[in-house]
Design brief:
By secondary structure, the protein is an alpha+beta fold. The protein folds into 2 domains: 53 residues, no CATH class; 44 residues. 59% of the residues lie in helices and 14% in strands. It has a two-stranded antiparallel ribbon with strand order 1-2.
Length: 126
């Protein structure tokens, strides 16, 4: 997992929401079944469900799940908390600093060190 992939997390969430709620509108002409046969327009609304949109949703959900799995798998509690607050929740560094009690610079420096030398997984033999 790279930092760039984590930075795309918010964009992935926004795009997924957009794809799942895109409303398609069309109008057709209709009339009553009985006399008087008055011609009128009927507007139809629905959610777009084409194959291209479904494939994009599937791909974006896989990317989102990969990022979630990466963050959930981090054993360093502070790094996990910082990544969760900033990338998943979309909090600013200022708000993260307020919540954690560390300065913005300290939090950023901690993650910079984490990216340079991530802790070994307990499942990986040394």
């Amino acid at each position: 997992m790279t930092r760039e992939q984590l930075e795309n997390y918010h964009d992935i969430i926004v795009r997924l929401k957009d794809l799942k709620t895109t409303i398609v509108t069309d109008s057709v002409k209709g009339s009553l079944d009985e006399y008087p046969y008055i011609n009128h327009s009927v507007t139809l609304h629905g959610v777009r469900r084409d194959e291209k949109a479904r494939q994009e949703v599937k791909l974006l959900e896989q990317e989102k799940n990969a990022i979630d799995g990466f963050i959930d798998g981090i054993t360093d509690v502070r790094a996990k908390t910082l990544l969760d607050m900033h990338y998943r929740k979309g909090w600013s560094w200022c708000k993260v600093a307020h919540e954690t009690g560390y300065s913005m610079e300290a939090n950023k420096k901690y993650l910079k060190r984490f990216w340079k030398c991530p802790p070994l997984s307990p499942n990986v033999p040394v």
